[in-house]
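EI: anyone free to look at a 247-residue chain?
SC: sure, send it
EI:
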Amino acid sequence: MKQNPTDPTNVPAGDRRPVLVTLATPRPTSLAGTFRAAARVLAANGLHHGDYFPDPFNQRMTTPLTERPMSIVAAIRCATTGSPRRYDSLSEAAIKTLAGRLEVLGEPPWSEEPRWLENHVDCWNDFPGRTTESAVAVLYAAADASEQVKAATPIPVVTLAEAVSLMGALPMPTAGELAEQRHLLDPLDHVLEHLADEPHPFPGACEACGDTAAQWCPDCAACRQGCHGGHDDNDCTHANAPWPVTR
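SC: here you go
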């Protein structure tokens, strides 16, 4: 088959040329995967003592950070984030788990704070004579242990009857609570209930007392104005008036 010389992977003579394709390495999603990925980073780059990696300010080295020797903490963070300088919740959980498995001079971590857990792992990392092989072995052992713990953790099965017994008997709601729940479920019912309590005058009737115009007293200014302000400044003689009759 004849190749088009203008194709991206072809040279002018029509021959094929190789194209470098870089595939992203999948990031771990579990503690076991994190420990194994960190172990592979250390096996490839080597273990570094005294800092996350050599020449942290790039004053002498031009090698990418991901290809330099690293401490265990840096390798764990590099495995989960792609950089020994960044961290996420998985890397910090792995550091906490690993710190609980390590002892420095026979002592476990003395604090559960993240910075002290990291410091504990660093102290184990920087102990004189610590080798890359021993660090890799510790990480693989931590991966196996985390999988065993996960497999040994049973998933509780609770029946409906057991759940009800654990919750206990629920108190019966009062009549007021039931009415309030009914209003919450059906707001229109709440509106209609309030409308039923309000007077509904006939067309043209007084908005305050409900009497029609034929029942208004001819000399009551308040009634001629629809009872507006009648209870404040004017006396009303209507029997249905909502304010006291004073004459």
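EI: DSSP finds ten helices and no strands in the chain.
SC: 👍
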